[in-house]
Design brief:
394 residues; alpha+beta; conserved putative lor/sdh protein from methanococcus maripaludis s2 fold; Elongation Factor Tu (Ef-tu), domain 3; OB fold (Dihydrolipoamide Acetyltransferase, E2P); 4 domains; 6-stranded antiparallel β-sheet; 6-stranded antiparallel beta barrel; 6 helices; 23 strands; 33% strand; rod-shaped
Length: 394
Amino acid sequence: MSFKSISLASTLAAGALVFSACSKPIPQEEPIRAVKVMVVGAQGMQSGSEYAGDVRARVESRLGFRVGGKVVRRQAELGQRVKAGDVLAQLDPQDYQLAAQAAQAQVAAALTNRDLAAADFKRFKELREQNFISGAELERRDAAHKSAQAQWEQARAQGFAQANQAGYTTLVADVAGVVTAIEAEPGQVVAAGAPVVRIAQDGPRDVVFSVPEDKVGMVKLGSEVAVRMWAAKASVKGVVREVAASADPVTRTFGVKVALGAADSPPLGTTVSIVPQALDRSGWQVIKLPTSALHYDGKSAAVWVLDKGAMTVKLQPIHVATADGNDVVVSTGLQPGDQVVVAGVHVLSPGQKVTLYAAKADTNPATSTQNAAIGSVATAPPAVAGAASVAASR
């Protein structure tokens, strides 16, 4: 091959490379995604608002000593049943006993002074009757006698008070019940009035639970609630007797107390489930979606709605009212009959063409039935009023 031929071939190859570099790449077509859809329809709510609570005594007393001192003995134990008059704990009584003895000594001294003043008054009264003294002198003796009498009464009252102080070093149960808490131990120095033992009094029982701020307005005094023990399937009826006027500073929820009948009272501390009648939404007709259908953009929720004619999807904003089991209840944004994508939402874009996912043939009848149930949901009669009721309940 000649030198000219080689040069011409090199020039043609370089030109071809230049033209290929300047030309635009051919755009790739967006792939058609396979998605699962469901037909939106009105369905009945399966669950209502259920809360956890516990059983407590209607009256729970926090007992403490009426005087301060060092705890030397504690007879009460956690969970112990006590009767009125049982000794619960004791303080060191030595100082109070000494004070009581001093008060008794003052009583004895005041009594002696009163008797001496009474004898003087009697003697001077006889002298006045014989005109040996003046009337003013007799009046002074009478005043001294009355003063001594008052001092004796004062000393006696102080003696009784000191004796009571010594008696207050023994903490005694004033009601029958069960010890639910111990708040002081032997060797601890407690102030007067500080709680030492907590007693749940025998009698009526209450179920206590908490509700959030958006639901407390629907719980009315006197309304019925269903109370179910976790350890048993049976449920009993209760009546709301108290609703807290202010929220708990920590949980920001409102406490509710439900009165139980004497025959239905479970043991103290039993954990129960509470379903207020005012918050029971079972049977309401609403629009529900699985959580896999939700698409969040960081601010609001939306779903992909299928345009069956063009086989494209568009993003439809929705408002989630509440949850029902593993599904969410949609209050606005959808209408019965809309087809919503329930799988593959993370790879879609507005206007993207899609195709319906078709499950592979399965020889197992149970699996085939399950796949068919996932692919579509039967449309129930629309119930716009039901969805509006959910939105109004918020």
